[in-house]
From TrEMBL:
InterPro entries (alphabetical): AB_hydrolase_1, AB_hydrolase_fold, Epox_hydrolase-like
Protein name: Alpha/beta fold hydrolase
Organism listed in the record: Candidatus Chloroploca mongolica
Domain AB hydrolase-1 residue range list: 22-262
Domain of life of the source: Bacteria
The keyword RNA-binding belongs to this UniProt entry's keyword annotation: no
Phylogenetic classification of the source organism: Bacteria, Bacillati, Chloroflexota, Chloroflexia, Chloroflexales
Length: 277
């Protein structure tokens, strides 16, 4: 497994990749990075695919501009640009949480480039909160980021994201979560992203109304104990709005199936990928 940088649309994007074969892109959630997918990248590579986890613009080791036109269209352009640089016409997209709505946007805007979708506890099926929208206000946004980066707050938020935090919430995960909210570059990018939230929301951009256009096979994976995007409020809704979507609910699992239930998650993923031919 190795990391490298590619330049897409003028932005430096970091990827973590392994394996050879059909291309599979893995997109992380908010305040996450490609590192969150490291075990899954290895597993997908062992299945016979070229697995590539991507640090989204503004996150991880990718560029963190404060003046970028953050939008679903830009994210989709970056991911299709990666396909172009890899010399392939199509790829399977796996998106977790925020990465799920980025994957959906790419599939809606560039359906010919996506041969399969895997949405893991995906964002995109809830209304934006006032707090989320307020994060784009300079002073309010900085205050929210400062508070969110405090160790006790990070622990509280991540504890709620796991069904069994004592077993799965490691010091490494806690530190990665806190680091993603710290530092001048991270805060500048996150504030800019929040300021342009309307352009990154499936509902506000009108892309959610187009989900019925999707024709590629889609796997939905949700933890039955997800408190971030509960399966009752989001998973079942996603299944009803996306044609050909199959929903798998993992028992005793929260918002991170790939971390909390890796065996079951990878098993579902292997079956789905094999079925794409």
């Amino acid at each position: 497994m190795h990391s490298r940088f590619v330049t897409i649309a003028g932005y430096k994007i970091h990827v973590l990749e392994a394996g050879t074969g059909p291309l599979v892109l893995l997109l992380h959630g908010f305040a996450g990075s490609a590192e969150d997918w490291r075990p899954t990248v290895a597993a997908v590579a062992n299945m016979g695919y070229r697995a590539m986890a991507v640090d989204a613009l503004g996150f991880g080791r990718s560029a963190k501009p404060g003046d970028a036109p953050y939008s679903l269209a830009l994210m989709a352009r970056i991911y299709t640009g990666i396909l172009d640089q890899c010399g392939v016409t199509q790829a399977t997209l796996i998106g977790h949480s925020m990465g799920g709505k980025y994957a959906l946007a790419t599939a809606v805007l560039h359906p010919e480039r996506v041969n399969g979708l895997v949405l893991v506890a995906s964002d995109g099926f809830v209304e934006a909160s006032r707090l989320t929208m307020a994060g784009g206000w300079p002073l309010v946004g900085q205050a929210i980021l400062w508070l969110s980066a405090q160790p006790r707050v990070v622990r509280m938020l991540l504890t709620a994201a796991f069904a069994d935090p004592e077993r799965h919430l490691t010091a490494e995960i806690l530190e990665r979560g806190r680091a993603a909210l710290m530092g001048k570059d991270n805060r500048r990018a996150l504030t800019a992203l929040s300021r342009q939230y309307a352009a990154t929301d499936l509902g506000l951009t009108g892309l959610r109304t187009r989900l019925g256009e999707l024709t590629m096979p889609t796997l939905l994976v949700w933890g039955e104990s997800d408190q971030v995007f509960p399966v009752e409020a989001c998973g079942y809704v996603a299944r009803s709005e996306i044609p050909k979507a199959h929903l798998v609910i993992l028992p005793h699992c929260g918002h991170f199936p790939q971390i909390e239930s890796p065996r079951l998650f990878q098993g579902a993923l292997a079956g789905f990928l094999a079925g794409l031919g």
